[in-house]
Model the fold of this input.
Amino acid sequence: KQEVTQIPAALSVPEGENLVLNCSFTDSAIYNLQWFRQDPGKGLTSLLLIQSSQREQTSGRLNASLDKSSGRSTLYIAASQPGDSATYLCAVRRVSTSGSRLTFGEGTQLTVNP
Amino acid sequence: DGGITQSPKYLFRKEGQNVTLSCEQNLNHDAMYWYRQDPGQGLRLIYYSQIVNDFQKGDIAEGYSVSREKKESFPLTVTSAQKNPTAFYLCASSLQGDQPQHFGDGTRLSIL
Done:
């Protein structure tokens, strides 16, 4: 059974810092990995999607990497801003006999202080 | 504009009562999903549907039921058999089963 773990559970940083969020998964037979952002009381917004054949994806100040063999992904946020404060979730997509499904980590709650 | 609409935003259930959460999408997506989110935990899959008139159980389907009579609608019923229904429920859809999922804003269900 696929398990996804995110470390740390919570992180508080001053504005302007570069930071790294970690995601690890137990089964390397994944289709892709996705990073999401969730604001309090809201749904999820997709940030980056990395296919299993890719090593990284970039969007603005965000960079996500994937090392399938070691079961790890990192989300790098450059020059953090208070507006980046949210919970960040990673999810891996596995393919089963009944279709592909997402398995989510518990999330990292990020606070960027002005 | 296109998106996923969940209603109501807040819902209260009495003991022994069934309640139905609504999820509607106008993205013309084939696949739809229901997740449950508890504090400090990730999302867990309740049910999913890859096409109209078909759906499969997820990891925590006990105490829940769904229907998929129309492409744009995937309502979730929380039955009285679900003994711990207090949670945040999220609906999602994707063009097809292996495409990125788009999420609604969720329904928070509480017990009176």
